[in-house]
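Handout for the seminar on molecular recognition.
Each group receives one record of this type.
Step one: identify the two inputs.
Step two: read the structure output and locate the region that could contact thymidine-5'-diphosphate.
Step three: write two sentences on what you found, then compare them with the reference statements printed after the record.
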Amino acid sequence: MEEAAPGKKERAATKGGARKAEPTVLADLQPDRSPRASSGIPELDRVLGGGFVAGSSVLIGGDPGVGKSTLLLQAAGTMAVQGVGVLYVTAEEAPAQIRLRSDRLDIASKELQVLGEADADAAIAWARKLKPGLVIVDSVQTCRRLEFDSAPGTVTQVREVANLWSDFARETGACVALVGHVTKEGAIAGPRVIEHLVDAVLMFEGDHLGSVRILRALKNRYGATGELGVFEMTGQGLAGISDPSRRFVAQRSEGVTGVAVASVIRGSRPMLIEIQALVTSSLYASPQRNATGVDPRRMAMWIAVLEKRVGLGLAGRDIFLNATGGLKLEDSAADLAAAAAINSSLRDQPLDPETVMIGEIGLTGEVRAVAAMDRRLSEAAHLAFKKAVIPHGYKDDVPKGLKVIPVKTMDEAIEASMGS
Ligand code: TYD
Ligand code: MG
């Protein structure tokens, strides 16, 4: 067999690296513009950085049931229609199950072949013969290499299988998409062990109750990592949501307390999201502080500032916070909205539903400027918000129809949020 044991491969690599290299003037180097193939799914392309890169390997991780197989089968379907040969290697489900799913997704193409094979070397042999442009391996945890004794899903097997396929991608120029399950316990053989072996790692996440799914890049050698793809799981597969703000704030019921809207930047696009807070008196000696989609340390800071600088009585209260849509809040510009939501719930007074809150909170209770204010405001105007509470000092243009209320301190921000 050609397939080398890891030791031999490493030696080969060092030998290659020992070839005499010479320095080149940076400007004279040819930029790496590896060809990309659109997946045919704009939200997936966005996260990939423009499509699948020839010769690259991508790991798609996520909880079981989130929709990894569905997403990749849809991409396979559209790419096959465009004439790209696709090989779908399934070791988890029977090919007949893939067929069932494809009926639901309305996929039928002669360019799409399905192989039910758990032996990775046997699957590679088929891939060499068929020369597909895209290979899907579903999943790395259920495939194995027979030359290694361990069971599928163990660290050794997962790593060897991923290694084999990423080498295949590099050698042949095919794109390989590997599916990897993540377990709640962060299972030992989870995709983490292979992150460094692949060119990109995409995570597919969703709140299990809702139908929104978020795809984001944890690592991407060929693109930015901040980009988000937003989907909705429907009866006919995943539908891209190209206007996520509308989706995230659409379900807002008016007059409800503890709800505020933030304008955050994810990758290249601004998004409005709703932050919900519920503040109740606690039955426990140490009150509960429970956050979904929100960093608990950030939440502790908002609470501390609200207590100390604004004088809210939050001690002895349970506080629950939730960023809607299964989105993770990683933008400090959402501070103001979160604090306003907490305040609104505590006082049981609704916020003005047409106001968006944008700004970072400092420990002294000051409201600090955030980047890309113009794009955040445009998004708010786009969704017909009327007012934006923002850090004072913003000098640039304000979109038509939007009134900005500049604030310096948390006190002022809280007052402005109540619409007074
Ligand atoms: P799946 O792609 O099998 O998830 P994964 O590969 O990540 O384990 O999708 C699983 C869920 O998606 C399953 O509960 C059924 C649902 N689903 C839909 O709601 N609509 C569809 O069109 C499809 C194909 C699946
Ligand atoms: Mg699956």
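Reference statements: The chain has eleven helices and 20 strands. The two ends are 76 Å apart (CA to CA).
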